[in-house]
Design goal:
The protein is of the alpha/beta class and 375 residues long. Helices cover 43% and strands 16% of the residues. The chain folds into two domains: 187 residues, Glycogen Phosphorylase B (Rossmann fold); 162 residues, Rossmann fold. α1 packs across α15, α3 packs parallel to α5 and α11 crosses α14. The radius of gyration is 21 Å and the shape is globular. It comes from Catalinimonas alkaloidigena.
Length: 375
């Protein structure tokens, strides 16, 4: 079987795009197991490069001004696919996917779709009229002809089953590896304890950063001693920085910008608590990265981490994703720092990743349950 992962982008893990990172890891581990796998990406001409030197074959195709119209190069590649190919789309609301699916249907080539939280009910409330029309005329057909929908989080599995009750939905989470080398240099002033941290794309609404800022402000007013450090970048960063100043916490919230690889993991490892207050999420890779270096978690239920935190006791789950609950959780960590319970959380966080999210086990499930490959 020939597996084709398709993504909007260049599958470069050194970006703020979590979908590209996940596809990069999937293909890397599959290729290492000897599978015939390629990654195809649709990108503007200026972005047709990948800085990560992937081990797997990577083909990048130009996007066109009329997104439903595929480039000639991509059309030729699709018609050249062998009969035993299996296509795997990642993310949703991408016009090229609908056009590609028509060719796949013509050639009787099966495909799977991993929405990566794109169909979350909260997400669908953004531009609702457009999305409703788009789903009716395009996305519903893409879903209907798919072999299955692949959910990466337990809450996403529920959402997909409710939205598309006639379609098969399969839950297999993202994986996390330990292929990094921690460095010595960190930029946190260590006098600021505890060190709360966030890592990810700076998107206010989805990541709940407005809630986080309000929560930090309340925490500080109630005598909280720690600071918050942001790793990441995005179009909303200036607005978040302004909000921190408006709330009077500009000196307690620090923006470190985008980081990747070992440098990013070194900074995360220096945190005392990792915070994630998303309004919706598939399953955050940043949360797994933090847990892999023994950083306890303070996260919303919407991250999909509740069953894991309940089982492993590796952090605190926000009872509600509100500024009040965020402030309360931060104050609780103020009191927990250096206690036996906190140290148990650190150990449990890494244990959770090792037992639930090891890439070898995840890849085995993906190969067997999505593609029917016993490898």
């Amino acid at each position: 079987m020939k597996i084709i992962h398709f993504v909007l982008g260049n599958a470069d893990p050194n970006t703020m795009n979590g979908v590209n990172k996940s596809v990069f890891n999937l293909a890397t581990y599959q290729y290492a197991r000897g599978l015939d796998v390629e990654v195809w990406g649709a990108v503007p001409l200026a972005e047709k490069q990948n800085t990560s030197n992937p081990t797997f074959p990577l083909r990048l195709f130009d996007t066109t001004k009329l997104r439903f119209k595929l480039s000639k190069e991509l059309i030729n590649a699709l018609y050249a696919l062998p009969e035993n190919a299996f296509f795997h789309f990642h993310s949703v609301f991408i016009p090229e996917y609908y056009a590609i699916s028509l060719i796949l249907k013509e050639k009787h080539i099966p495909y799977a779709l991993t929405p990566r939280s794109g169909y979350n009910p909260v997400s669908l409330k953004k531009n609702p009229r457009f999305k409703k029309v788009y789903i009716r005329f395009f996305e519903s057909r893409l879903v209907e002809d798919a072999e299955l929908l692949h959910a990466v989080g337990p809450l996403e599995e529920e959402d997909l089953a409710a939205l598309f009750p006639k379609q098969r939905v399969l839950f297999i989470p993202n994986g996390q590896d330990f292929n990094f080398t921690l460095q010595d240099k960190v930029t946190f002033p260590m006098k600021s304890k505890p060190i709360f941290g966030f890592c990810g794309r700076v998107s206010i609404y989805q990541k709940g950063l407005d809630l986080m800022m309000e929560g930090v402000a309340q925490y500080c007013k109630q005598g909280g001693k720690g600071d918050l450090y942001f790793i990441g970048d995005g179009g909303d960063r200036p607005e978040v920085e302004k909000e921190a100043q408006r709330l009077g916490i500009g000196d307690r919230v620090h923006f470190l910008g985008a980081m990747y690889g070992d440098a990013k993991m070194t900074q995360i490892q220096a945190m005392d608590v990792f915070m994630h207050t998303s309004r919706w999420e598939g399953l955050s890779r940043a949360i797994l990265e933090a847990a892999s270096v023994e950083v306890p978690l303070l996260v919303s239920r919407e991250t999909g981490m509740e069953p894991y935190i309940d089982q492993y006791a590796c952090g605190l789950m926000l009872p509600e994703n509100t500024p009040e609950a965020i402030a309360k959780g931060m104050l609780e960590f103020d009191a927990l720092l250096e206690t036996p319970r906190y140290k148990q959380m650190q150990t449990a966080a890494k244990q959770m990743v090792e037992q639930e999210f090891a890439w070898d086990a995840i890849i085995r499930r993906v190969n067997q349950e999505i593609y029917g490959i016993q490898a």
